[in-house]
Design a protein that fits this description.
This is Aminoglycoside phosphotransferase family protein. By secondary structure, the chain is α+β, with helices and mostly antiparallel strands. It is built from twelve helices and nine strands. A five-stranded antiparallel beta sheet has the order 1-2-3-5-4, covered by helices on one side. A two-stranded antiparallel ribbon has the order 6-9. Strands 7-8 form a two-stranded antiparallel sheet. A hairpin with a 4-residue loop joins strand 4 and strand 5.
Length: about 350
């Protein structure tokens, strides 16, 4: 409550003479909180970010926001800031995420015009960000970071969540598999990577609201310089919504063809590009299972448990497709027998 009162006082100083009410806007997997400020004078609503300095640093958010804005992406405008206390006053991109908009398409064919249109907009924003890429500006998505992320899987998903101890042979297999995954990931061309470019972090901007072109892009503070396929995995192998592989392939081909025309460093052959995409997905889904388990067991956030089966299904499908991942598939069978896996189709 003390923190909230500090935020109220700061906002009152930042918007003098304006009465307002605060309501929760959203929360993410970190310590950041977001509130929507509604003003008595009827002015536009604003978003207030509360990032406790002991746990969060708003400077990376500000840095990436400027990079992405300069690239042409639609990110929130910074209206006021207090770096010492971790408060930001931002423009409001609305309350409709891509996830909410796409879920309204449930039951329709996966290539429904609305979904295809929204994803095309998202790919346009992503390509703009990637075209602005240059080294030395963002942290590098290097071997140590990619490996540290995957290590969350044995530590949090296997040991803590499933309560299973790996044998020496299984642990050695996992280490060897991680090295194979890293070899593919690190051989990819590098660009700016949002790192969570998915349906919960893309906002639907209605034209009547005067907010600009879709999508609004949020939650980008962990951006890095890394593999070009990573954000495509976040977008199309989304932990929160699933589309048929035919639809995903169609969108990937469209991106790949457009990327070549824009001069982005994609592979010359689509088969090679798709292999990179698949193996990047393996790295991400191994990581995500560990993160979701950690959010539950360490942070008491159980909302992500319902999303684990879809992530596991993505991982299992990739392991079935690539022979080198066969040993990992055997481990997945022991951790999570296939007959309890859940499939999702739209």
């Amino acid at each position: 409550m003390q923190r909230l009162e500090q935020l109220r006082t700061w906002l009152a100083d930042a918007q003098p003479g304006r009465d307002f009410e605060l309501e929760p806007a959203s929360a993410d997997a970190s310590f950041r909180r977001y509130f929507r400020a509604r003003f008595a004078d009827g002015g536009p609503t604003r978003i207030v970010m509360d990032a406790p300095p002991a746990q969060e640093d708003v400077r990376p958010w500000l840095h990436v926001a400027e990079l992405f804005r300069s690239a042409g992406a639609h990110v929130p405008e910074v209206l006021a800031q207090d770096l010492e206390r971790g408060f930001l006053l931002l423009s409001d991109l609305g309350s409709t995420t891509y996830l909410a908009a796409l879920q309204r398409s449930a039951g329709e064919a996966p290539d429904c015009p609305r979904a295809a249109h929204l994803y095309a907009d998202a790919l346009g924003a992503l390509a703009a960000i990637q075209c602005a890429s240059r080294p030395g500006v963002l942290p590098v998505y290097d071997r140590s970071l990619l490996l540290r992320e995957m290590q969350l899987f044995p530590d949090w998903y296997v040991a803590r969540h499933k309560g299973i101890s790996l044998s020496e042979a299984e642990a050695a297999m996992l280490d060897e598999t991680f090295e194979k995954i890293l070899a593919v990931n690190l051989a990819e061309p590098q660009v700016f990577v949002h790192r969570d470019f998915h349906s919960r972090n893309l906002m639907l901007l209605e034209p009547t609201a005067g907010l600009g072109a879709n999508p609004g892009v949020i939650d980008f503070q962990d951006a890095v310089y890394g593999p070009i396929s990573y954000d495509l995995v976040s977008l199309f192998k989304d932990a929160y919504i699933r589309w048929d592989e035919e639809f995903i392939l169609d969108m990937l081909i469209r991106y790949w063809e457009a990327a070549k025309k824009l001069g982005l460093p994609v592979r010359a052959e689509f088969a090679d590009f798709h292999r990179d995409f698949e193996w990047m997905g393996v790295q991400r889904h191994i990581k995500v299972l560990g993160i979701f388990a950690r959010l539950y067991h360490r942070d008491g956030k159980d909302g992500y448990l319902a999303d684990m089966p879809l992530v596991m299904d993505y991982l299992r499908r990739a392991c079935k497709r690539w022979r080198d991942l066969g040993p990992l598939l055997k481990l997945l069978d022991r951790l999570e027998p296939e007959d309890v896996q859940i499939g999702y189709t739209f």
